[in-house]
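Example 3.2
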Amino acid sequence: MLLMATESFGSTILGLAEMTPLQYILGWVFGVLTVPLYIVTNRFIDDKKFTVIMNKIDLEGEDVIPEKLRKWQKKLEHTTTI
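Structure, written as tokens:
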């Protein structure tokens, strides 16, 4: 994707904005830096610290929408739009 954005063909066909060489290099640098960052965070940050928060926040359960938001959702469903 980065390589295609540096050429006019790729930007025309895929609808990408043309990139300067500096943007291309920085894209690769930031992309490559995520690999060692991933390894370091998996080794040195313990997942047990986040289990309390993860257990409180349930995005896949039945009652995901809190009651206050549900009231506003019902009000918005009954309004008419132009």
